[in-house]
Amino acid sequence: MATELAKVTINGKEFEVPKGARLIDVCREKGFDIPSFCYYADLALQASCRMCLVRIEKMPKLQTSCTIIVTDGMVVTTQSEEIEKAQRGMNEFLLANHPLDCPVCDRGGECELQEMSFDWGGLEERFTEQKNYYAERYLSPMVANDPQRCILCKRCTRVCDEWMGEEAIEAGGRGAHTVIGTYMGWLDCSQCGNCIEVCPTGTLLDATYRHQTRPWELAQTISTCNFCSDGCQMSLGSRGGEVRRVVARDRYVNGINGEFLCIKGRFGHPFINHEDRIRTPMIRYKKGGKLIPATWDEAIRHVAERLDTVAENHGRNAIGVVGSPRLTNEALYVLRKFATDLVGTENYTTTDLHSLQPFFDNLGAPLATHRDIRYAKTILLIGGDPSELQPLTGKQIRQAVRNGGAQLILVNSTPIRLREQAAIFLHVRPGTEEALVLALAGSTNNALAAQKADIDAAQIDAARDMINATTGDVIVMFTAELSGAAQTVLAQLSKVIGGEGRRVLLHPLPLFNNSVGAHDMRMTDRNVSPYEMLDMAGETIKAMYVAGGFLPGHLAGRENALSKLEFLVVQELFENETTAAADVVLPAASYAEVDGTFTNNSGLVQRVRQSIPPLHQSKADWMIVAQLAKELGLDWGYELSASAVFREIGEQVPAYSGMRYPLLKDESQPVQAKHALNQTVDSAVEDLRRRVEGLAANGEKITATPDVGTELFRLGRLTEKVPQFELLANGNPRPETTAVSPLYQIKGIADLRLPIAD
Ligand code: SF4
Ligand code: SF4
Ligand code: SF4
Ligand code: FES
Q1: What is the structure's pLDDT at 747?
Q2: Ligand nearest to the CA of 40
Q3: Ligand 4 binding pocket, CB closer than 6 Å
Q4: Ligand 3 mean position to 257 CA, how many Å?
Q5: What is the pLDDT of residues 483-519, one digit of tens each?
Q6: Whole-angstrom Cα distance, residue 408 to residue 466?
Q7: What is the pTM of this model?
Q8: 194: Cβ below 6 Å to ligand 1?
C-alpha cells in the first residue's frame, strides 16, 4: 500500500513526508539539527526538556517538535534568534544545579549535555546560588549513580519500564530536589545497564568500567555478542590489548538492537582478558600425567600422529569431532570440513543442548527478524523464557505489546514474567507444550491436547480465533527444547494458520550465539547428540577432537566418559572438566580476538571483528584446525584469512550463497541467510499425535513466577569469570555502604561459589 504523503515546508524548503510522521524525526531526516534530551525514538513521549522547540506558522508559541505530528501544509522554522534564545535559556536552567566539572565526570567526552552546552549553551553561568549536592553512590554491582548530574529527562525510567518491563528506577523527591533513584537505594533488577546507555549525562554510569579510561582513548570495534542467539550488535572498547567495556551506544554502532544490550552482552566481557586464559599449547604425554607446555609445532605434530594412529588401528569413525555453538561460522565450517573431508568420520556434532535440525529440515515459512517481532500483530510463544534467555527478543515482545498493540499468546508450564503482557496464557503441564503445537495443526486434536496439557479446550479455540482474526504478521516463536516431531509440525504451521492478509513468520529460540550457524555449517546433520557422542567414548569412539568444551549438563552422569578415550584434544579458552581429561590442550582465541561471523535466531549473518590481538599464544579456532589439516597433508589455502574461509562458505553453503564480508559490513543492514523452504512429509502430524498420546498427563504446573535473573545471573563458564556476576548469583546482597564498589563484599562470600550452569 502506498504511503500517504504530506507537504511540509521546513526553513523555506518544501518536502513530501509520510503523513503521521513526527516533526522532530522529519526535521532531522531532512538535515535540520534539532536538540533534544527527553525525546527518544520508540519510547513513550516525555516532553519535559523543551529543547526541541520550533516555530510553526499559525501557532501562537514555540512548539516542542517531539510532540507534533506533521500535517499537510505545515510551515516550520527550526532556527531563529527566538528559538536559539529559548534553547539557550533551557540549557542554562538544566545547568542551574548541575556541577560544572566535566573533567572529573565519567561521561566526559561522550555526554550529550556537555555537547549541547557547547552547541546551544550560554557562555556564562548567571546562577550564583549554592547548587544541590548529593553524594555519588552505587545502585548495584553494575550501576553507579551521581544524582546531582541528572536533568530529569526520564529516558532511564521509560527504558526500564518499556524495554525491560521492570520499573526498577523512578524519580523521587520534589521540585529542584527531584532525583532518580530506586526503592531502598538498591537495584534489584535484571542489571541490563540500558538506563546507563540511554542516560545523556553522567548520572547513571557503568560501575564496572568507571574511572578506567576516557572514551576517546578506547578503540571502538563493532562486533556481535557471543552470549545468546539474539545476536546483538555492540561496540567493544579496547585499550592496550584489553577490552575495557562494551556498549551499544548509537554514536558507535547501529544494529538490530539499537542501544539495547542485556547484562551478559554489556557486562560479561571481562572473561576475555581474564588471567586464567590458557596461555600455551600443552601435552599430557601419559595418562594421569601433567599437562606440559609445548610449542605449537610440537603440539600439532603430536595431535596429527596420534589421530593417524587411532584411524589406522580403529578406523575413521573411531574419531569424534565436536564443536561449540559459540564458535564462529568460519570455525564450525572448517571443523565440519576437517571431520568429513580429512578425518572421514560420520561422528561429528556440537555441544548444544538442543538441535534445531528437524525445524530447519521442514522449514515452511521465513524466519522473523527482531524488527518483525516489534511490529507483529500477534505473537505465539511456545515454551522458553526470552526475558531471561534471549533478552532482545523479550524486549521486542514487550514493546510490540506495549507500544504496538500486539497480542501475545503464551504457552508455558511456568507463569514467566512475559505473562504480564499476554492476552492469552495457556498454562500447560510441564513437557506438554508440544500438545499445543498439535492442536494448532488441526482442531480435531483439541481434546487430546487439552487433556494432556490440563487446560480448557475453549482456551485453545480462543488462541486459534485470535490468530485467525489477525491482519498483519503472526510470529510463532518456540523453545529449541521442543521434540523433533513438534519442531517438524511447527515448521509447517503457516500452512494452517496463515491466510489472506496474514503472514506467518517463525522465530526459534536456541540458547547459544551461533546455534543457528552451527546448523547451517552442517555440524548437526548427522543427528548425533553430544550425549550419544559421550556414550560412545571408549566404545566405538577412541579419540575425540573438541573445539570448546562439553557443558556441565552433558557431563552430568557421564563424568568418566572422556577419560575412557585413548586420545582427546581440546581447543579452549579456560581449563575445565573437558580439558582435565585432555591429552592435548590448545589455547583458542575468544570472539574479541578473531574475525568471523555468527548467525542469529533470525538467520541474520553478522560480523564478528577482531578488537584485540589474540591473547598469549592463542589462535583462532579455524586457524588451529587448518594448521592441523596441513600437518595431516591437506592445505586448504586459507592463508590466515577468515574472509577466505567465509568466501568458501558463500560457495559451498546454499543458504549463504554469494555472501562475502564486504556485503556484511553495515550492521544497520543485516543480511539474512536464505534458508530453503520445504514441504514436509504428510505423516508429520500423525507422528506428533502418537508422541502426544504417549505424554504423561500427571506433571504439576509451576505456579510461581521465577525471579528476575533466574537464568541471566546463573554462572556460566564465561560469566563466572566476572566478579559482579558472582555477587548477583549470590542474591545481589545490599552492601552496608553504597559509597564504594559493592565488590568489596566478594571476600565475604568467597565460600559461596555456585555450580556452573550450561
Ligand atoms: S539496569 Fe536495566 S532493569 Fe535495572 S534499572 Fe537500569 S534499565 Fe532498569
Ligand atoms: S538519570 Fe540520566 S536518563 Fe535518567 S532522568 Fe537523569 S539524566 Fe535522564
Ligand atoms: S540479548 Fe543476547 S545477544 Fe543481546 S546482549 Fe544479551 S546475550 Fe547478547
Ligand atoms: S525533546 Fe521535545 S521536549 Fe524534550
Answers
A1: 67
A2: 4
A3: 36-39, 47-52, 64, 66
A4: 9
A5: 999 999 999 999 999 999 999 999 999 999 999 999 9
A6: 10
A7: 0.96
A8: yes
